[in-house]
Amino acid sequence: MISAAETCLGRLLGDAGRAELRPQAGKVFHMRAGRARFAFRIAADGSLRAVSAAVAPDASVDFVPGQPPQAAGDGALLQALGAAKEGIGPAGGFAAWRADAAERLGANLANWLTAEWGVLAGQDEARELAREARELERRVDEMLARHGA
C-alpha cells in the first residue's frame, strides 16, 4: 500500500528528482519535522517507498523552525537528496502547487459559504444590494427636496 507521504513526495519529485535518486537505490533516509517522522527507501526507479522508522537510516534530515535543515549520514545520499529537492524548492513545482492549492481552497471556501451555507452574498447579490442602496439614496434625496430639507 502506498502511503500519502509517498504519493505527495513522488508527485513533487518528478522525473528529474527520481533521476537524481536512482544511483542511491536501496538506501534509507529519515526526515523529521517536529513530531512528524518519515522513513523512506529509494527504489530502483528513484521513487520513494515508505519503510518503518525502526529501519536504520543511511542518512537523516531534521527540520527545525528558524534553522537550516540538520543533515547527517551518507554524503552521497545527502547530495542526491539535495539535488532532487531543487525541483521542489521555491523555483519548482512545490511553490506552484502551494499557490494553486491556496487559490483553489479560497475559491471552494467562498463557494461553500455563498452557495451552500448562504453566509456570504455572491457577486450577483452584492450588485443587487448596491443597486437597491443607490435607488434608496435617490428616493431619500427626492423626498428631502420635496419637503425643503
From TrEMBL:
It comes from the Bacteria. Residues 119-146 form a coiled coil. Keywords: Coiled coil. It comes from Candidatus Amphirhobacter heronislandensis. This is Uncharacterized protein. The lineage of its organism: Bacteria, Pseudomonadati, Pseudomonadota, Gammaproteobacteria, Candidatus Tethybacterales.
